[in-house]
Amino acid sequence: MGIRRLTTIMILFLAIAGAGLTAVEEPPVIQSVSWLLFGSPGCEDCDWLARHFFPALNDESPLSLPPVIKIDTDTDGGYRELLSIEVRLGMTGDHLPVLLAGNALYHGKSAIIQGRGDLLDAAINRLPLPLDQAERAR
């Protein structure tokens, strides 16, 4: 899937989630329908996760995992999207790959593997991704 198409899909989700907003007690959410894996082309950890970790996690889950969409961080659009999500969630890190699953970011292969239990919960519950105040104001 091209970065333009992915960006268009994400903008559409933001537009739908933000349509007709008024003052509310709870922040609006975007339903996480897929997981985003941010990394560079040729990322060995990304390939290992795709070939081994995600299939094993899917076998362990009572429900199928959400689709995992790889985002190229070597492009301006892919890297900017990662930074935007980090700012929105208040979660930053120094390691690639980065996985967005539900409402959490996992920075690096080790963090993704250590988050196995939370990832299973996210797959089962399809945790929503909260929008911050700046996103609601758009």
Secondary-structure map with pairings?
Elements: H1 3-18, E1 29-31, E2 35-39, H2 44-60, E3 68-72, H3 76-89, E4 98-101, E5 104-107, H4 109-114, H5 116-125, E6 128-130, H6 133-137
Parallel strand pairs: 2-3
Antiparallel strand pairs: 1-6, 2-4, 4-5
Strand order of the largest sheet: 3-2-4-5
Q: What is the N-to-C order of secondary-structure elements (H for helix, E for strand)?
A: HEEHEHEEHHEH
Which range does the strand content fall in? 15-25%
Q: How large, in whole angstroms, is the Cα Rg?
A: 15 Å
Distance between the termini: 26 Å
Total strand segments: 6
**Helix run count:** 6
Shape: globular
Which spans have pLDDT < 50 for at least 5 consecutive residues? 15-31, 127-138
Structural class based on helices, strands and sheet pairing: alpha+beta
Overall helicity = 40-55%
Describe the structure.
This protein is α+β, with helices and mostly antiparallel strands. It has six helices and six strands, in the order H-E-E-H-E-H-E-E-H-H-E-H. The strands form two sheets. Strands 3-2-4-5 form a four-stranded mixed beta sheet. The radius of gyration is 15 Å and the shape is globular. Mean pLDDT is 77; it is low at 15-31 and 127-138.
